[in-house]
Amino acid sequence: MSELIDKAALRDTVQKYLSEAEESLKKPVVDNQALRDEIKALLQEKDAVLVAHYYCEDAIQELAEETGGVIADSLEMARFGAEHPAKTLVVAGVKFMGETAKILSPEKTILMPTLEATCSLDIGCPEEEFSKFCDEHPDRTVVVYANTSAAVKARADWVVTSAIALDVVQHLSDNGEKIIWAPDQHLGNYVQSQTGADVLLWDGACIVHEEFKAKGILDLKAIYPDAAVLVHPESPEPVVEIADVVGSTSQLLKATKEMDNDTFIVATDRGIFYKMKQASPNKRFVEAPTAGSGATCRSCAHCPWMALNSLELLRNALRDGTDEIFVDEEVRVKALKPLQRMLDFKKS
Ligand code: SF4
């Protein structure tokens, strides 16, 4: 395959990706220091803690670290928020993460930089349709990914994140249970292939991970033959098949620390580069290509909803109490059961 590759063109493409990644790493330097100081003061004044996802911009991740908050995947965000003593959680991420925090910590005020930040998986799994789908298969255990609304969680038997999905589904399958999996079909496929479970899939997808292309990654591998390919399982099957490591954001981050490779091709949101670079400053991280040359990609390895989180909106939410998350109490109580089941499973 390598004889067919125009290496000069590929080097240009790679350089473009590297330059974009470098640009994103420079962001904290140019951020407004006064705004950051204001947020720090507000966090103290309001007895609040910042809970940020790996896909948020560097400046927000940096602020979470500097103020005793956390940068994490959605499972760890949920656990950290529930166990932290602060009265207010500021959740920088997307709406289902704020809802999860409220479900687990109803006594706390949950703020987000913007309630507009949602997720294609959440949007693609409306509660009414999903409930009907479940009703048509009453013999199946309903397992939903964390990237769903509170109402969909309330209809589920289990909630899982990508960090724990394999273990939970393996456990259910070993107990002879047949499963409905929603909403991400690619992650569901991966879970099915790894566990051999009887899984009926909902057909949702993440618009970011769905854009990664196996061909583009193989082309990059020709340039960086010693690079390890790290893939989030929300990616399509051909991409998962060529991965050296498949895992959640925290599992991919761990792999970059533990593996000897000095270059990694990373197929997940480029926000994760902040922590990867911080943990391994001497290693090289290359964005996996999306959508192919000349295509108009909708995500380009960065979630458009995660990108809505900004320091300014975060400051406004804290200062003015806007963008607060509320969850109907009846829904919350129902959604808590499958969520708590996941957290207890993790502990055990
Ligand atoms: S990256 Fe994908 S799964 Fe994550 S919030 Fe964005 S759209 Fe949803």
TrEMBL record:
Note whether Transcription occurs among the keywords: no
Q: In which pathway does it act?
A: Cofactor biosynthesis; NAD(+) biosynthesis; quinolinate from iminoaspartate: step 1/1
Report whether Cell division shows up as a keyword of the record: no
What's one GO BP annotation on this UniProt entry?
Answer: 'de novo' NAD+ biosynthetic process from L-aspartate
Query: What GO CC annotations are associated with the protein?
Result: cytosol
Q: Which SUPFAM superfamilies has this protein been placed in?
A: NadA-like
Q: Which InterPro entries match?
A: NadA (IPR003473), NadA_sf (IPR036094)
Alphabetically ordered keywords of this record: 4Fe-4S, Cytoplasm, Iron, Iron-sulfur, Metal-binding, Pyridine nucleotide biosynthesis, Transferase
Q: What class of enzyme is it?
A: transferase
> Which superkingdom, per the lineage?
Bacteria
A GO MF annotation of the entry reads: quinolinate synthetase A activity
Q: What is its EC number?
A: 2.5.1.72
Names of required cofactors: [4Fe-4S] cluster
Task: State the name under which the record lists this protein.
Answer: Quinolinate synthase
